[in-house]
Design a protein that fits this description.
The protein is an alpha+beta fold. Helices cover 36% and strands 31% of the residues. The radius of gyration is 25 Å and the shape is rod-shaped.
Length: 145
């Protein structure tokens, strides 16, 4: 009986394939790590922008001042005047790298606020959350100027 050796793979071919797959997987891990950091940075900026927007709308709805204040390298608080604030943490390794207005924004009963910028960073990447005098909130990457 004759054995057909043209089908299947040899052990050597299988080992070469596994070696190539592990090489590609090893090259992809740093990219995935960087991408996760960028996602954490985006989530942190969105969390800060959301808190600012909620404080503005709460000030408008209740007719009383609300504020957002940075209280640590990765935490901020939100609340009305005279009531215990709610503390929120930024995700992962995201930190505040620069703040203006002393790290605090106060929204008046009309929804207006002082100009402020909260810059968040992760590794060499940064995103800013900007509040204008009318209380409008927007996100800005470092390259946006």
């Amino acid at each position: 009986m004759k054995v057909d050796r043209t089908r299947g793979v040899t052990l050597l071919e299988l080992l070469v394939l596994l070696g190539l797959l592990s090489l590609f997987a090893g090259a992809a891990v740093p990219q995935l790590s960087s991408m996760m950091g960028m996602l954490e940075l985006r989530a942190g900026a969105l969390r800060m922008a959301s808190a600012l927007t909620r404080a503005r709308f709460a000030a408008l709805a209740h007719g009383e001042p609300w504020w957002v204040r940075v209280v640590g390298p990765s935490a901020f608080e939100v609340g009305p005047e005279g009531i215990a604030p709610v503390r929120t943490q930024l995700p992962g390794n995201v930190r505040f790298v620069a703040v203006t207005s002393g790290g605090e924004v106060r929204f008046g009963p009309n929804g207006w606020a002082e100009n402020a910028t909260f810059t968040l960073g992760y590794a060499e990447h940064e995103r800013s959350v900007v509040v204008n005098q009318r209380g409008r909130v927007r996100l800005r990457d470092r390259e946006d100027g």
